[in-house]
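Why should sequence recovery work at all? Because a backbone constrains its sequence more than one might expect. Tight turns favour small or flexible residues, buried strands favour hydrophobic ones, and helices have their own preferences. The token representation captures these environments compactly. In the example below, the structure is given first.
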């Protein structure tokens, strides 16, 4: 038995066609298929899974946003079946970090015991990363756009945000040290390499260990920031050491002197001026 969980709004609303094709393929292979809309709040899918065979496969069709909402719902719950991902999102940074070309990716081991952040007295678990500042504002612009959520639109919104965004003062406490930044563009904390649809913002990060990588962009001239933006896809920005600081830790606190935007796995929050992050 295959149980498909999907978000109909993912991939700019095209997920329904993906689910229909996947269902047809699995049925041709002789599988019994159940399709469950994750936006249907009338049924608790975790309770539904308790009544299904242990050898059933749970297949999630969606991207980073779908997975982010899912892991925040299941952290204190038990799912006995194996869980797989069928790519169906826009950014797909989680799937990208697993470096596989398989269409059905086993992911259960990555969905629990996750790092989390406390923002505005609420606990949020995250798969890929969280950020405060420029990346949060870009995610807000992309999520609120009426256009398609694709790499082209992400790039366009990033360019627009560069000219609108103003740096802020940030204080970071980690590894028994305190660091102050007077002109921070962004403070990003990563559990994996990628964000923004393939940018290698934290080239050494890996979800296979307990380390978090903190990337701070500070005091960089706006023109230079525009010029180095494309090399983030290659992970080469970390070598511009006067303006890009990288730290490795397992816990930290971030404070901003103003309310700004935050992002968690591509979901935005506002207003935010403080984050506590732990493994």
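From this structural description, the recovered sequence reads:
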């Amino acid at each position: 038995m295959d149980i498909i969980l999907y978000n109909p709004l993912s991939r700019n609303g095209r997920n329904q066609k993906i689910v229909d094709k996947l269902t047809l393929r699995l049925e041709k292979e002789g599988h019994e298929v159940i399709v469950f809309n994750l936006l249907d709040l009338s049924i608790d899918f975790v309770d539904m899974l308790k009544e299904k065979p242990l050898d059933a496969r749970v297949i999630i069709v969606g991207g980073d946003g779908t997975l982010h909402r899912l892991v925040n719902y299941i952290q204190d719950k038990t799912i006995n079946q194996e869980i797989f991902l069928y790519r169906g999102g826009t950014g797909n940074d989680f799937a990208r970090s697993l470096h596989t070309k398989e269409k059905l990716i086993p992911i259960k081991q990555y969905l629990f015991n996750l790092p989390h952040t406390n923002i505005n007295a609420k606990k949020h678990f995250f798969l890929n990363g969280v950020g405060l500042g420029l990346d949060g504002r870009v995610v807000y612009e992309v999520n609120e756009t009426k256009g398609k959520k694709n790499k082209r639109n992400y790039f366009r919104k990033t360019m627009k945000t560069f000219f609108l965004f103003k740096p802020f003062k940030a204080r970071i406490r980690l590894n028994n040290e305190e660091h102050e930044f007077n002109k921070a563009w962004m403070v990003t904390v990563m559990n994996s390499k990628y964000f923004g649809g393939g940018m290698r913002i934290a080239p050494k990060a890996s979800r296979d260990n307990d380390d978090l990588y903190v990337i701070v962009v500070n005091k960089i001239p706006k023109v230079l920031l525009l010029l180095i933006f494309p090399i983030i896809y290659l992970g080469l920005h970390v070598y511009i050491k006067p303006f890009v600081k990288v730290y490795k830790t397992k816990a930290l606190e971030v404070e901003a002197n103003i309310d700004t935007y935050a992002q968690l796995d591509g979901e935005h929050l506002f207003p935010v001026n403080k984050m506590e992050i732990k493994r």
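A few observations help interpret the result. The first helix runs from residue 15 to 28.
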